[in-house]
Design a protein that fits this description.
There is one protein chain. This protein has about 400 residues and is of the alpha/beta class. A six-stranded mixed beta sheet has the order 7-6-8-9-10-14, sandwiched between helices. Strands 2-1-3 form a three-stranded parallel beta sheet, with helices on both faces. A hairpin with a 5-residue loop joins β12 and β13. About 50% of the residues are buried.
Length: about 400
């Protein structure tokens, strides 16, 4: 009996050791840590809220489905107030909290600062919405959003398709002091057909209260390109609604996202002109993955922060997860305590090696080795022109 009991105890100990070894190899209750810095206070807060919400929703879904080979994910989000001066502290805090991979930042100016630190540590990041052309300057940086140059080129292609060889004059309203706005503006102008002339109206402060000078410059334009953020755009539209032709079209890029929901006291339905934008996400989609995302997001967070920023962040998390799964399926070990630099090399090999992703913001999405994303773009009408 004693000998039998000893065998049982030994067998039990062996089983416990095997389980412990399995748990150790597969991470157990440990997690892969995804870090991100973005604004949840200040003028760009709606963007950061959308990214934080949607990224967390993706993490929750992945974890509920078992994570990656049993290892779950953790999202760490820190407010940067859309201020590059906060990035040094935020980045250090993210590293301290175990960041192994990142969504970078939500907006461009902080992202340019973030990319310098991420390069030093070789941290892979896939940003949902920091569109600056230099965001993916280094080999560890990638974008899910269109880069400013890409937005400027695609926007110009659209305008060329409408007005080439018609002797058309269009207006442009841009912030010459902002890298996002001026970057898109520069590429747009370079890609615009020579048969189209422009009236350019610049400003230097996104909180500008009086756009009377710019309105006077653009008051006769029936098409105005606006590569700016939604706050100054809403101010301009409000002040210009009875001066700019009612049949005019305001056409922007992803900076206009949220203009119909995010600004307290601004009612977009009072603007008679059409408000439209270049986008990779239709927040009014009625089918497909976009519709599924919209339904889940609205049910969980409401419609107030629903935007392409959130949709892109949701895709970022799933794209990183998918690339890690691809690597594991090919035999690459990714333990839960993997270093950021080792994980970076694994993800770079995937993203540079033909990895294809289909999500909310596009199908058959791929990336160039320079970090720029390749996917389709559409014109999205935020608000149609009021009936005349």
């Amino acid at each position: 009996m004693k000998r039998t009991l000893t065998k049982i105890i030994c067998l039990a100990l062996a089983c416990m050791m095997a389980v412990c070894a399995f748990v150790s190899c597969n991470g157990g209750d440990e997690e892969y840590v995804i870090g991100v810095s973005g604004p949840v206070t200040g003028v760009a807060a709606v963007y950061g809220e959308a990214v934080r919400n949607a990224a967390q929703m993706a993490v929750d879904e992945i974890n509920e489905a078992g994570g990656l080979n049993g290892v779950k994910f953790k999202l760490v989000f820190i407010d940067d107030k859309h201020d590059a001066n906060n990035i040094s502290t935020n980045y250090a805090s993210l590293v301290e909290q175990g960041m192994q991979v990142s969504l970078g930042t939500v907006t461009t100016a902080p992202g340019l600062e973030f990319s310098k630190y991420a390069k030093q540590d070789n941290v892979f990041f896939l940003t949902p919405s920091a569109t600056g052309d230099k965001i993916p300057e280094f080999a560890n940086g990638y974008q899910m959003c269109f880069a400013d140059g890409n937005q400027g080129t695609v926007a110009a292609d659209y305008v060329n398709s409408l007005f080439k060889d018609q002797g058309k004059t269009i207006g442009i309203l841009y912030n010459s002091a902002d890298s996002y706005s001026s970057g898109i503006y520069t590429q747009f102008k370079a890609s615009l057909d020579s048969s189209i002339t422009t009236i350019d109206a610049a400003f230097t402060d996104d909180k500008l209260a009086d756009f009377s000078g710019q309105i006077q410059s653009l008051k006769n334009c029936d098409f105005i390109f606006m590569p700016i953020y939604y706050t100054p755009a809403s101010t301009f539209m409000t002040q210009a609604k009875d001066i700019v032709p009612a049949n005019a079209v305001y056409y922007g890029c992803d900076g206009l996202d949220g203009i119909d929901t995010a600004i307290e006291g601004f009612d977009i339905t009072t603007i008679p002109q059409e408000v439209s934008m270049l986008s990779h996400f239709n927040s009014k989609a009625t089918d497909g993955m976009a519709k599924e995302f919209i339904d889940k997001y609205v049910a969980k967070y409401g419609a107030g922060t629903l935007s392409q920023f959130g949709a892109s962040a949701y895709d970022c998390v799933y794209a990183i997860y998918g690339a890690m799964k691809n690597a594991q399926d090919k035999g690459t070990e990714i333990p839960s305590d993997i270093s950021a630099t080792d994980l970076c090399e694994i993800l770079k090999a995937e993203f540079n090696g033909g990895y294809t992703f289909t999500g909310v913001t596009g199908t058959n999405i791929t990336w160039n080795a320079d970090g720029f994303v390749q996917k389709g773009a559409v014109k999205y009408v935020v608000k149609a022109a009021n009936a005349q």
